[in-house]
Amino acid sequence: MNTDHLRAFVLAVDEGTFEAAADLLRISGSAFSQRIKALEKEIGQVLLTRTIPVRPTESGQKLLGIARQTVLLEDEARRSLGFRGSSRNYSPTTTLSVAVNADSLASWFLRVLQEAATWDDVELHLHAEDQEHTHELLRNGTVTAAVTEHPTPVSGCRAEPLGTIRYWPVASRELLDRHREEGGAVRWASVPQIDYSIRDSTQRTALAALGVTTPAITHLVPSVQAYNAAVGYGLGWGMIPESMLPAGVKEGTHRDLEIIAEIQPDDVELHWQHWSTTTPAMDRLNDVVRRAAARMT
Hints:
By secondary structure, this protein is an alpha/beta fold.
């Protein structure tokens, strides 16, 4: 397969439109379309939907990971040999797409970004997703590496443990007091809960252990900072990473927030999964992720 065609395919997926991808390659829209058509003709299947944004078809998903690796290896080979070639067919930077769970992205992974700020030849494309599902982005070729809770390596990848994040169940006393029965027990079926996203099952799993299958109210707050603030305001109860707990909550001295005694903390073991194919850029990223995670634990 022609690497120029594979590069066009990857850029179309990443940029969302043929026009934006063509601009990056500094070629006309018609020339770009011809590259995609040539690749589809060679494969014998349609690889991209002609929608906005452009999306890979089922066949395109199967090819995407291979295409990313091919483009990455070509760029790294050219760079190591000091050969730039045509600016139309070669990127002076290496693009590393990484899936990271939101809580990591808002905490220890910031150290990765801090060090990556000194790299002039690497650009990071980060995808925020729940740690239960980041491996799916690795499996379908969307990313080259992922912070995930799954220890079993995706095919063609390596996995290594990063450490554990402990999530504590937290609520405001005022919220819980509004939902207490005369004997003092909390009516958990009526207490509002807060989920980070519709795929966030942490709170539902915890309630299931108390015999509650469907809470009366579930708020969705897809921002780590806003989520923690919403728990503090008493919008609902939620699970907060230990490193993000307000001062005094764990010790029981906070003026309003408290650890929920009836619900056990949730320990989530994180793993770093990445392509088995090694390149200087990937090795650098692996190293800084390991060091950042070591400081987390």
